[in-house]
Amino acid sequence: MPETRKMQRPVSPTATNDAEPWHTRAACTAEDAPLFDYDPRMKQHDEGVVEAAREICRSCPVLDACILDTLDFEAGKPWIERFEIVGALTPKQRAGLDPTARKVGDPRYCRNGHPRTPENQRNNGSGATTCAVCRHEQDVENGRARRARAKELTA
After folding, report:
1. 3-state helix, strand, coil in the chain (%, to 5)
2. First and final CA of the chain: distance in angstroms?
3. Disulfide engineering: 28 pairs with which of 7, 20, 51, 138, CB 3.0-4.6 Å?
4. What is the total count of domains within the chain?
């Protein structure tokens, strides 16, 4: 049987005035954490699982404190760096509520959220520039794919 883990939430002592932290009363603490897993880089998610996680969040007695603390914790991060269903919201939805989040299409950042700096930009030969970090990640992945194909051919 796979090992389950419990939800871990960012905790701010200012979230409530109660002596007991809000996260101890959260509905998700009684649930298995994989239910709330959500990787924004994946193209498809099981909508039934996403909706089940959202239902648990919607019934939570500390929903507002959870959303506020999570937005504070994730402040400034682009949606691609946010994970899990939190407060019945996906990472992209939470980034939309954060005025400091780096937006997709912001000219100061590449499409994957890397900052556009002179050191981070590379001319691609056609007059346009590409993100050096993204290009490096792509080169590494292409090298892995070539090695795997070569290994298959020699096997």
Report:
1. 45, 10, 45
2. 35
3. 7
4. 2
Contact 87, 66 (CB under 8 A): yes
Name residue 135's amino acid: R
- Structural domain containing residue 129: 118-154
| Tens-place pLDDT, residues 53-86 | 899 999 999 988 888 888 888 887 777 677 888 8
Rounded to 10 degrees, what is the CA torsion of 48, 53, 59, 64? -140
CB atoms within 10 A of CB 22: 22
Tokens 């699982």, located at residue: 49
What is the mean predicted confidence (pLDDT) over 127-141?
A: 82
Say which residues have a Cβ less than 8 Å from residue 148's Cβ, sequence separation at least 6: none
- Retrieve residue 128's tokens: 């346009």
Same domain for 39 and 93, yes or no, is yes
Q: Which residues make Cβ contacts (< 8 Å) with residue 87, sequence separation at least 6?
A: 57, 63, 66, 67, 70, 94
Q: Name the one residue in this structure whose structure tokens are 């939800």.
A: 7
Domain-embedded: residue 17: no
The pTM (predicted TM-score) of the whole model is 0.52
Rounded distance between C-alpha atoms, residue 36 and residue 48, angstroms: 12
Phi-psi region of 76 (alpha: psi -120 to 50; beta: other; left: phi over 0): left
